[in-house]
Specification:
alpha+beta, about 10% strand, rod-shaped
Length: about 200
């Protein structure tokens, strides 16, 4: 009986020992797998965070670049508007005053009409400001026509404040030499100087 009990205890102890070893091996394997899973999860989380940070940095850089470009375009547009206003102010008043003087308008009209005379045959039509009718009507119909050796029809409009429009009598086209067109032309030559004075 002692031998049986001893054998039983020995088998029990060996089984228990073996069970413990297997249990410890299973536990160690489970711990290793859990640690590997945690490390893999940490690595994946780190990658996700790094990707998110890169995307955020890229987006921030793009937004900053777009803002800089928009600001630069806005400043350029404002500078151009200021330049245009100043140039128009500088050019507009003297040009308007000159193109409302009868003698000045007659001199320019003669120079332009002579150019037409040299390049095109046929009579001319001129539209002048109503305010210059007294000073220019006789000149255009008599003296200018005689100087050019061709017919020149003159009409007058309240829509034109200074200068004139000229073209072939058939009305196929007109070229405008009004105060607005002269101010734009002179303004284009003033702009580089004005820009330098305004913005350095």
């Amino acid at each position: 009986m002692d031998k049986l009990q001893e054998l039983t205890e020995r088998l029990y102890n060996e089984g228990l020992s073996k069970g413990r070893e297997e249990g410890e091996a299973v536990l160690a394997k489970a711990k290793a797998e859990a640690a590997a899973t945690i490390e893999a999860a940490k690595a994946e989380a780190g990658k996700i965070i790094a990707d998110a940070e890169k995307q955020a940095a890229d987006l921030k850089a793009k937004v900053e670049s777009d803002l800089k470009m928009a600001a630069s375009q806005c400043i350029s547009a404002v500078k151009a508007d200021v330049e245009k206003v100043v140039t128009a102010k500088i050019a507009a008043e003297p040009v308007k005053a000159a193109l409302r003087e009868g003698e000045f308008v007659k001199a320019i009209l003669k120079a332009v009409a002579e150019k037409f005379s040299a390049e095109e045959a046929g009579d001319l039509a001129v539209v002048l400001p109503e305010s210059l009718r007294k000073e220019t009507e006789g000149y255009v119909k008599a003296e200018l026509a005689k100087e050019l050796g061709r017919g020149v029809d003159a009409s007058f409009s309240k829509e034109i404040e200074g200068g004139f429009r000229i073209g072939p009598k058939d009305g196929s086209y007109f070229i405008s030499f009004t105060d607005e067109t002269f101010a734009e032309l002179i303004g284009a030559y003033l702009r580089p100087t004005t820009k330098k004075l305004l913005f350095g």
